[in-house]
Amino acid sequence: MAKAKARKPKKLFSPFLLSLAAATGWAATHEPDSFTDFGMAGAWLLSALAVGLLVGAALALLAPLGGLCMEFLRMAAGNSGAPPYHGTEP
After folding, report:
1. Tens digit of pLDDT for each residue in 16-69?
2. CA of 30: how far to CAs of 41, 58, 69, in Å?
3. Residues in CB range of 14: below 8 A, 6 or more apart
4. Which of 14, 22, 39, 46 has the fewest Cβ atoms surrounding its Cβ within 10 A?
């Protein structure tokens, strides 16, 4: 018998969709006056792609850092009532 695969918990947000939204938002606010100049339209498309990739990279870096910060806060909140420990036994 095959084992049932464990399901991953749903994420709060999708990094792909956030980077896609950032790229399309940037492209919408920075569109050129006319698309007849193919060089300008190509540069516009490449810059929209670059914005999407930069947002994706930022999200990839921020996710682990956010997890570390949450773990640090959880540990700090759990030890707030304990007496300080300086490494010496009484």
Report:
1. 999 999 999 999 999 988 889 899 999 999 999 999 999 999 999 988 898 899
2. 11, 21, 35
3. none
4. 39
